[in-house]
C-alpha cells in the first residue's frame, strides 16, 4: 500500500484544489514559514480519521475549513482525498478488491464529516480501522509533529508502549476489544432488566 496522491480543497490555507503527488522514495516539502507545510501533514492525519480538533491546532473541527482572507471569502466545506496504490493487495480485508483506493473526507459547516472509500459512503470507524490494521493512521508514529520528539522523551512508559502497538498494527484490536466490552456491558444490563421482570412476574 503506497500513498500516491493527496488532494486538498478548502482545507486550511489550501482554498483552491491542490494536488500533492507522492512518488516512491523520499518526498520533501520546502517553503517559507507559514506557507502550509504542517497543514499538509494535518490533512493526511485528518483524512485518516483524526477526530481531535486540538491535533489539528484548532478549537473545533470546523476550524479546518478555509476561514477566508482579505481577497477570498470563507468556504463552506473542506475536503481531503488520499489516493493509495493497492496493486500489491496489502489493504486490510474488506478494502482489498481494487488496485487503487481513494479515501475522501469532507466536512461541511453545521453538518459535520462524511467519509467515502472508492465513492462508497463509509463510517469514520471504517476508515480508522482500515489504517489501524495497516499499521498507520492519524496517530501513527510515522507522522512526527513539531515538538513530538521531546514529548516522547518525557512520556510515561504506558504512552511509549502505545507507539510500539501502533507500529505492530494491533491498535485496531484494542478498539475492537473496547467495542466488544461495551456490547457485553449492554447485554449484562439487559439481562439484569430481564431478571427484574421475571422476579416481578414470579
Ligand atoms: P512553519 O514553517 O512556520 O512551521 P508551515 O509552512 O508549516 O509554517 P502551516 O503552519 O502549515 O505553515 O500553515 C499556517 C498557515 O495556514 C497560516 O498562514 C494560517 O493563517 C493558515 N491557516 C490555518 N488554518 C486556516 C484556515 N482555517 N483558513 C485559512 N488559513 C488557515
Automatic annotation (TrEMBL):
Residue ranges of coiled coil: 170-202
Annotated ATP binding sites: 32-39
Compartment(s) of residence: Cytoplasm
Leader peptide range in chain numbering: none
Quaternary structure and partners: Homodimer.
Role noted for this protein: Required for chromosome condensation and partitioning.
Family statement drawn from the similarity comment of this UniProt entry: Belongs to the SMC family.
Domain comment, as recorded: Contains large globular domains required for ATP hydrolysis at each terminus and a third globular domain forming a flexible hinge near the middle of the molecule. These domains are separated by coiled-coil structures.
Record-given protein name: Chromosome partition protein Smc
Amino acid at each position: 500500500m503506497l500513498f500516491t496522491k493527496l488532494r486538498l480543497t478548502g482545507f486550511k490555507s489550501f482554498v483552491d484544489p491542490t494536488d500533492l503527488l507522492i512518488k516512491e522514495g523520499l518526498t520533501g516539502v520546502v517553503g517559507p514559514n507559514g506557507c502550509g507545510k504542517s497543514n499538509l501533514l494535518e490533512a493526511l492525519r485528518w483524512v485518516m480519521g483524526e477526530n481531535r480538533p486540538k491535533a489539528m491546532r484548532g478549537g473545533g473541527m470546523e476550524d479546518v475549513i478555509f476561514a477566508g482572507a482579505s481577497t477570498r471569502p470563507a468556504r463552506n466545506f473542506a475536503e481531503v482525498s488520499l489516493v493509495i496504490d493497492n496493486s500489491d493487495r496489502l489493504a486490510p480485508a474488506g478494502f482489498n478488491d481494487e488496485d487503487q483506493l481513494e479515501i475522501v473526507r469532507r466536512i461541511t459547516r453545521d453538518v459535520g464529516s462524511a467519509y467515502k472509500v472508492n465513492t462508497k459512503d463509509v463510517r469514520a470507524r471504517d476508515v480508522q480501522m482500515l489504517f489501524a490494521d495497516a499499521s498507520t493512521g492519524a496517530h501513527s508514529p510515522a507522522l512526527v509533529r513539531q515538538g513530538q520528539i521531546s514529548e516522547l522523551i518525557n512520556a510515561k512508559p504506558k504512552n511509549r508502549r502505545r507507539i510500539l502497538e501502533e507500529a505492530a498494527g494491533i491498535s485496531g484490536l484494542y478498539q475492537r476489544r473496547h467495542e466488544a466490552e461495551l456490547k457485553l456491558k449492554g447485554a449484562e444490563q439487559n439481562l439484569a432488566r430481564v431478571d427484574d421482570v421475571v422476579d416481578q412476574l414470579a
